[in-house]
Design goal:
Elements: H1 2-5, H2 9-20, E1 66-69, E2 84-86, H3 89-131
Antiparallel strand pairs: 1-2
């Protein structure tokens, strides 16, 4: 009798589990599972939250309205890459005004230099006339 019962615990455990399962349990619908894909040596699949190893908070040095965003969240960026454009109409107007003032100042300097050349010529002529005793 000991030889018939055997030492294999797996067959006894499976038989005991089948005996304990109630007969009133409805039969489960067969579930089809896709065959597992052949694993690629360079990739793997997992689930869970993603956390960035490196990230940077970006702040502007000037106030203004953003008119164009050149990158999307999650894009890889390089140092010096354009990320967004601010509305620069007010700054361009200020630059144009400063350039106009510079041009006006240069024109004024040229006018003063012309006046200096004229005054120098007048002085030489007057010195020559005084030397000839034409004027006092």
């Amino acid at each position: 009798m000991l030889v018939c019962s055997g030492c294999n615990s797996h067959s006894q455990t499976a038989a005991a589990a089948a005996a304990e399962t109630p007969a009133t349990t409805p039969a489960a619908a067969p579930v089809s599972t896709p065959p597992p894909a052949a694993p690629d040596a360079k990739s793997f699949t997992t689930t869970g939250p993603l956390v960035a190893d490196q990230q940077a908070d970006i702040a502007t040095e000037r106030d203004g309205r953003v008119v164009n965003i050149a990158v999307q969240i999650g894009d890889h960026v390089r140092a010096g890459q354009l990320l967004a454009l601010l509305d620069d109409r007010a700054l361009r107007t200020a630059v144009d005004a400063c350039q106009a003032r510079i041009s006006a100042a240069k024109a004024q300097v040229e006018d003063w230099e012309a006046e200096q050349k004229s005054a120098t010529a007048d002085l030489r002529r007057a010195d020559g006339m005084r030397a000839e005793k034409i004027i006092s």
